[in-house]
Design a protein that fits this description.
This protein is mainly alpha-helical. The protein is built from 13 helices and 2 strands. A two-stranded parallel sheet has the order 1-2. The protein is globular and about 60 Å long. The two termini are 21 Å apart.
Length: 219
């Protein structure tokens, strides 16, 4: 791929890389920089948990009481947010307490979602592993449903890459924060599409912030 050719001999100096858990990303790392430690980016793990929780929200809604349905419906906007980011003017900050009182499966799922974040707040690999193992056990015994058990299996499967964060504390935040995706979409709109993929890739590389070599150095 052009990306790996662009890196040239710099590939040999890469000791670790933060990636999504997708199989394609893992294969690209193994094939091109096998010496690198793969760190599964915790923001993507949290996003996957949010997706599972939203699936749970949709499943429990039809059988909920009218009072529960109000809180569950609002959960669509509540789930992706951290508690400290809830807007008090919109009464968002009141919703977690209301959910707790209703004691629905979504309530238990929300608690699991928040406690999952504690894994990356531990001070050592041993503490991180103990916290992750404890979370997996809680998710499996929560009686919330198959979706939380699926999440537990996912974290079990990818536990090594998740815990590699304690060996190499890196994330994809530097890439996510560039807002490059928005600029690429704007470029496509202005150009009314591309017939030549080579021209498309060259224009992406011409975006000032999109410098793969600099991004790797920053990580």
């Amino acid at each position: 791929m052009p990306f790996w050719k662009l890196l040239g001999n710099r590939k040999k100096k890469i000791g670790a890389v933060a990636i999504d858990m997708g199989a394609a990303f893992q294969k690209a790392v193994r094939d091109n920089i096998p010496q690198a430690v793969m760190v599964f980016d915790h923001f993507h793990v949290i996003k996957l948990m949010n997706d599972r929780l939203d699936q749970l929200r949709r499943r429990v809604y039809p059988n909920a009481t009218p009072e529960q349905k109000e809180a569950i419906k609002f959960g669509k906007w509540l789930i992706p947010k951290n508690p400290e980011n809830l807007n008090s003017l919109r009464h968002e900050s009141e919703m977690p307490d209301r959910m707790m009182k209703l004691n629905t499966p979504l309530t238990k799922g929300y608690i699991l979602k928040e406690s999952q974040k504690l894994v990356w707040q531990q001070d050592s690999l041993a503490e991180g592993k103990a916290c992750l193992d404890d979370w997996i056990a809680q998710a499996n015994s929560s009686m919330v449903g198959e979706l939380m058990m699926m999440m537990a299996r996912t974290l079990t499967r990818f536990s090594e890459g998740i815990l590699n964060y304690f060996r190499r504390p890196i994330t994809t935040a530097c890439l996510e924060g560039l807002n490059t995706n928005t600029k690429i979409k704007a470029m496509i709109r202005r150009s009314y599409g591309f017939r030549n993929m080579g021209n498309f890739m060259r224009l992406i590389l011409a975006i000032k912030e999109f410098n793969p070599v600099r991004l790797l150095a920053a990580g």
